[in-house]
Amino acid sequence: MISIQPASTKTEQTICRGRIRDLEADFFDIPVDNAVMYRIADNRVTCGAAAAFCINDVAFLKVHFSENAKAKDEMFRMVMHQIISVYHPSRILMDHFCGIDENILRMSMFYPLGSVYARDIEPWRYRIEDQVFDRQGNIINQGKLKDLPFGWFNTKDKGCGWIAAYNLLRMNGREHTMESCAFALEHYGLRTKLFGQEVFSLFTWLKREGLPVRIFVGLKHQCSEKMLKSSSGILLYTHKRGGHYTAYRKVSKDHLQFYNAVYGLRDMVVAPDQFMNKYVFLPWTTLIYIPDHEETE
User: Fold this and answer.
1) Which of 79, 87, 157, 167 has the most neighbouring CB atoms within 10 Å?
2) Could you tell me the residue range of the domain that residue 40 belongs to?
3) Per DSSP, what are the bridge partners of residue 61?
4) Is 34 helix (H, G, I), strand (E, B) or coil?
């Protein structure tokens, strides 16, 4: 379990320096009143640090991961979401990103700007409450997105498809803006604007965006088996109120984490057969999935 904890006291900062051997002595020395400092841990083991401040709507961020840190992309997404939620900046600038591959920055929508890397925050982000997102920045509450358009409707009523695509792209290191996902998908299928997201249009668009997805249509127990052999994906199913898309990722041998399946529910981790029995109304489902390493071998 990855966590981000405040490192605002000298004691907490000393702990970070002791656990991260190459962390600069002055990493936390930021003489600005609104500065924030964080300790990043994986299974309670400190493996990174972050510090930031904001001036004139621009956040200045530095991040340092230890050499042996794992899941750096996931940790970086959590840091980004934290900084956006704290400052609500229009832009983030980074000039210190030790231990982070530049590819992670590019996949997180950063671009070179002189001697630093920059990311511009999309306008849609500030049309949404912070509570719509989980701690990694994935969307988990479609019910609060009435103000975001999708086709001839709004995202609250018809946007579960683009939300699932947005979440799946993020968790696989190919982050897009929310607006670009919604706009691309509403124009990709012939009937999407009128009836909502078409599953085969969603599948082909995700492949076009670089995800190695496959598609499967079958009974609930068959899809459950496929989900456990995948790393992540999107499930299309029918519940009591109609059809719905939810993104998921595999978190253990037998359990998956679902996003936006139950509006606002954080850390929804269940076995796939439990999910099917509780939430899926009809006996068949459609699965867009990314095979894990074992199935591709």
Assistant:
1) 167
2) 2-121
3) 52, 94
4) coil
Q: How far apart are CA 187 and CA 175, in angstroms?
A: 19
Residue 209 lies in a domain: yes
- What CATH number did the domain enclosing 61 receive? 3.40.630.30
Angle made by CA atoms 124, 182, 123, in degrees to the nearest 5: 15
Based on the domain organization, do 205 and 86 belong to the same domain?
no
Take residue 160 and report the two structure tokens written for it: 């579960």
- One-letter amino acid at 24 equals E
Contact call for residues 136 and 78 (beta carbons, < 8 A):
yes
C-alpha torsion 247→253→254→256, nearest 10: -20
On the CB side of 187, how many CA atoms lie within 13 Å of its CA? 6
Q: Is-above-0.85 flag for pTM?
A: yes
CA-based radius of gyration for the chain? 20
The total number of structural domains in the chain stands at 2
Place of tokens 């290191």: 173
Q: pLDDT tens track of the chain, all 297 residues? A: 889 999 988 888 988 888 898 899 899 999 899 999 999 999 888 999 999 999 999 999 999 999 888 889 999 999 999 999 999 999 999 999 999 988 999 999 999 999 999 999 999 999 999 999 999 999 999 999 999 988 778 999 889 999 999 999 999 999 999 999 999 998 876 555 444 578 999 999 999 999 999 999 999 999 999 999 999 999 999 987 789 999 999 999 999 999 999 999 999 999 999 999 999 999 999 999 999 875 544
Burial class (CB within 10 angstroms; exposed 0-12, middle 13-18, buried 19+) of 232: buried
Is position 239 within any domain?
Answer: yes
CATH number for position 266: 3.90.70.10
